């Protein structure tokens, strides 16, 4: 679950939170740990490759709430694919001092197409490639943080320099972006039916503490090498910039390579998970489906839809706006899941009411803070994100004619 989001989001988090931005990762980990309770309890009770779609259908039945919220989750994952591929494109072009122009989206789309081709090759190729990439990714990110801290004498004084005043709202809002860097655990729950002894191992697979350790190494590594103003200026490639004081241009290039590896691993897993979720929603008749003349099974078609949407987002939205859309869609969906588990499935699954409510409230607080910050800097993306979520729910209601549908087994209260 340690993905490429750390490369894309560290600079954006620092821009909102200021010098103490590493604390956003700790807060994000705490909220993610609370949120994971709902997913783990549901996946342990009903292991399913449908993941989020299964959780929602067990709570709300096959109605518009399930279909709309599942699509929000799918879109948040597609948005993450766009975010990380566009980020790695920015990293790749930094040695040539190219920060904008057509080459950024062209490279981003190329990365998405690569993920499509590997997914078409089948599950075996994805599994072998992902394992190799995961080892390189975790080791490389940890090494980056250690070297950056070592070169600074294990001092965080650089990031504390600067005169800008960062308020409490910005610090809370930054946690919303930090949560995105931990959301890889939802990909694990999508594989519940394929994990050995899922009742025991789905929860273990969500190694949030490992993520916290790696992300804090990175955050402190960046903060020890760059001032907060430098991090913000290099927002889209802050990790590569932070590697230069320790290893010079070689460090910069090695970080670029690491970003490529992390992105390849993350996008491959995400594209596969989204296409499978959309295929399940289609089979459940929760969303319409058009073949458009394509042969083969439904999941091959949804794979095409996934990469097309990701490519469009990578072309037309910058990194900040892509991340903002991801925050809106993911946190809204997350709150719907927590309420559904609390209201209907807490007794069946053994979920703790206090944890469910805490996760729901925490999501709401960081989402409100994030919206408040973005209303000041980019009200258009707020309207786009919230408006799209409302429109999607409305279209699902029109398509399915009902918000809820009764399940075969009665809801447990």
Automatic annotation (TrEMBL):
Membrane topology: Multi-pass membrane protein
This protein's GO CC annotations: membrane
Molecular functions (GO terms): L-amino acid transmembrane transporter activity
Regions that span the bilayer: 20-40, 60-80, 100-122, 134-154, 166-185, 206-228, 248-281, 302-319, 325-342, 354-373, 379-395
Protein name (record): Amino acid/polyamine/organocation transporter, APC superfamily
UniProt keyword Membrane, yes or no: yes
Organism: Cohaesibacter marisflavi
Keywords associated with the record: Membrane, Transmembrane, Transmembrane helix
Alphabetical list of Gene3D superfamilies matching this protein: Amino acid/polyamine transporter I
Compartment(s) of residence: Membrane
Pfam families on file: AA_permease_2
């Amino acid at each position: 679950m340690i993905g490429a989001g750390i490369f894309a989001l560290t600079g954006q988090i620092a821009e909102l939170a200021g010098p103490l931005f590493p604390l956003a990762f700790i807060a994000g980990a705490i909220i993610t740990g609370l949120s994971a309770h709902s997913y783990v309890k549901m996946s342990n009770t009903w292991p399913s490759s449908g993941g989020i779609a299964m959780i929602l259908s067990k709570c709300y039945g096959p109605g518009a709430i399930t279909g709309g919220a599942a699509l929000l989750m799918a879109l948040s994952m597609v948005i993450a694919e766009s975010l990380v591929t566009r980020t790695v494109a920015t990293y790749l072009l930094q040695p040539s001092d190219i920060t904008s122009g057509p080459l950024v989206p062209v490279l981003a789309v190329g990365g998405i197409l690569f993920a499509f081709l590997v997914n078409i090759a089948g599950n075996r190729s994805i599994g072998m490639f992902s394992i190799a990439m995961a080892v390189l990714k975790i080791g490389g990110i940890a090494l980056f943080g250690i070297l950056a801290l070592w070169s600074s004498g294990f001092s965080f004084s650089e990031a504390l320099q600067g005169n800008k005043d960062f308020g409490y709202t910005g610090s809370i809002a930054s946690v919303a972006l930090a949560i995105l860097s931990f959301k890889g655990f939802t990909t694990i729950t999508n594989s519940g039916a394929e994990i050995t002894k899922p009742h025991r191992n789905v929860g273990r697979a969500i190694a949030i503490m490992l993520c916290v350790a790696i992300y804090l190494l990175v955050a402190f590594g960046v903060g020890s090498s760059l001032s907060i103003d430098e991090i913000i200026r290099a927002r889209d490639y802050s990790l590569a910039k932070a590697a230069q004081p320790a290893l010079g241009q070689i460090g910069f290039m090695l970080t670029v390579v690491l970003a490529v590896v992390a992105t390849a691993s993350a996008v491959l897993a995400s594209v596969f998970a989204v296409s499978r979720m959309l295929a399940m929603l289609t089979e459940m008749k929760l969303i319409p489906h058009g073949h458009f003349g394509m042969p083969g099974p439904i999941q091959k078609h949804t794979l095409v839809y996934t990469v097309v949407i990701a490519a469009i987002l990578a072309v037309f939205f910058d990194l900040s706006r892509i991340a903002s859309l991801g925050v809106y869609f993911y946190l809204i969906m997350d709150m719907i899941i927590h309420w559904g588990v609390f209201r209907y499935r807490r007794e069946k699954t053994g979920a703790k009411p206090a944890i469910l409510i805490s996760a729901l409230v925490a999501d709401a607080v960081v989402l409100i803070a994030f919206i408040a910050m973005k209303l000041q800097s980019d009200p258009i993306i707020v309207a786009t994100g919230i408006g799209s979520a409302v429109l999607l729910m409305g279209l699902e209601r029109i398509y399915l004619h009902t918000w809820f549908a009764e399940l075969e087994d009665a809801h447990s209260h």
